[in-house]
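Incident log, structure service

09:12 report received: a user says their structure output differs between two submissions of the same chain.
09:20 pulled the input from the user's history:
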Amino acid sequence: MTTERPTRVLIIDDDRKLCALIREYLAPLGFEVTAEHTGPSGVDQATTGNHDVIILDVMLPGLDGFEVLKRIRQKSQVPVLMLTARGEETDRIVGLEVGADDYLPKTFSTRELLARLRAVMRRASRPAPSAGGDAPAGEIVVGELRLNSEARAAALGDKPLDLTAIEFDLLECLARARGRVRSREQLIESITERNYDVYDRSVDVHICSLRKKLGDESASPRFIRTVRAVGYMFINPDDA
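09:34 re-ran on a clean worker, output below:
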């Protein structure tokens, strides 16, 4: 009889009491929690260990959380939930732009932390694409762009796209609604399981990153067109 392995969580935070509190809460729920308390040690553990999700504080000794995240993203796409002491919009935007999957102010409840952890892990779940054979079910093809919903894989021509979980969800939502405008609120509802502030710029940050990876330019878009004061629309590059 096999036993399912625990979900491995790495906390990078210099607040040892908070780390102990999180460990105490998560352990009975099937989580194996490891903690590091400086930026450099956090990078080492994150890039050499086998973790399912990382909880990362912005304010750290040695290296701040943004620099830690940059270094993690050079080697791994593990889901990262950032903690911000102030909860300021600037911190959230920078974190998302660097590659965070979600953020949480440090006034969080343990139940909210658990919900966010489970949500980012679900969004980041990427089964390996099958090799060869017929085109898999659930594939979306628009021009040179191919999206495989089941494998959560995307490619532009022969080049695979290295997308974060949220970037893939956004791209899939836009591609399925191609030719129709999607507001930021509609996009947020489609990719998250919580309510965002309608003024949150996280969608714009992810769209900007998507455009770079697609080789798109906002002035003359091939795939994602900005509809001023409304949102975004996915277009067929042949019609652009």
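09:41 both user submissions now match this output. Likely a transient worker issue. Closing.
09:42 reviewer note: The mean pLDDT is 82. The helical segments are 16-26, 39-48, 65-73, 89-98, 110-124, 165-176, 184-191, 202-214.
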